[in-house]
Amino acid sequence: MNEKELRTKSKFLSLVLRHQPETIGVTLDDAGWVNVNELTTALSRHGKGMSRETLEEVVRTNDKQRFSFSDDGVEIRANQGHSVGIELGYQTATPPDILYHGTPQQFVEAIARDGLKKMNRHHVHLHVDLTIATDVGRRRGKPVLLQVRASDMHQAGHEFFVTPNDVWLTDRVPIEYIDFS
């Protein structure tokens, strides 16, 4: 399967596992998991057929490692970024001193006024890797890289979680912890 086909399948899988499972008639459990056989059957029923092997390739090759199989391989879910009501069950973690958030230039003014908010997602997403954070900001325009003093936030009582694909999550980032330079 070529890269473009994999990317298309990955985007649709993101839609289903993060935002609109009803698109193909599946239901995520409370932690965002869905049975792989149920998923592949529903995908086929809706003209988006994906074999188990193709699904594994999509998960393995996703550049952001957005998806995970359960330990027994029976279920699959998105690691973060949900807009549907689920509880991922990640344990709190101690963040590094600095984390990064990439955002398009047009949102910087609002962030400077209100801080980083989770908006319609479960958490604010932060990264250790500058390149990934910049790429995230580039998706909708000219990217701006913000530095978040995560260790200071953590010491002040803010909770952090880290996903299997190394995205750091928190409920919000007040402006006093953001460096805009």
What features would you describe in this structure?
- The protein is an alpha+beta fold and 181 residues long.
- Helix content is 33%, strand content 20%.
- It has helices at residues 3-19, 36-45, 52-61, 108-114, 130-138, 150-155, and strands at residues 34-35, 67-69, 75-78, 98-104, 116-117, 124-126, 143-149, 161-162, 168-170, 172-173, 178-179.
- A three-stranded antiparallel sheet has the order 1-3-2. Strands 4-7-11 form a three-stranded antiparallel sheet. A three-stranded antiparallel sheet has the order 6-9-8, with no helix packed on it.
- Helix 1 (3-19) packs across helix 3.
- The longest helix has 17 residues, at 3-19.
- The radius of gyration is 17 Å and the shape is globular.
- The termini are far apart.
Keywords:
single chain, alpha+beta, Arc Repressor Mutant, subunit A, 6 helices, 33% helix, globular
Radius of gyration: 17 Å
**How much of the polypeptide forms β-strand, as a percent range?**
15-25%
Structural class designation = alpha+beta
Named CATH topology of the largest domain: ADP-ribosylation fold
Output the CATH class name of the largest domain. Answer: Alpha Beta
- Overall geometry comes to globular
Q: How many strands, which pairing sense, and closed or not: the largest β-sheet?
A: 3 strands, antiparallel
DSSP strand count:
11
Number of helices: 6
Share in helix:
25-40%
Strand order of the biggest β-sheet = 1-3-2
Spans of 5+ residues with little confidence (pLDDT < 50)? Answer: none
- Into how many domains do the coordinates divide? 2
Order of helices and strands: HEHHEEEHEEHEHEEEE
Return the average pLDDT rounded to an integer.
94
> How far is it from the N-terminal to the C-terminal residue, by CA?
42 Å
Name of the CATH architecture of the largest domain: Alpha-Beta Barrel
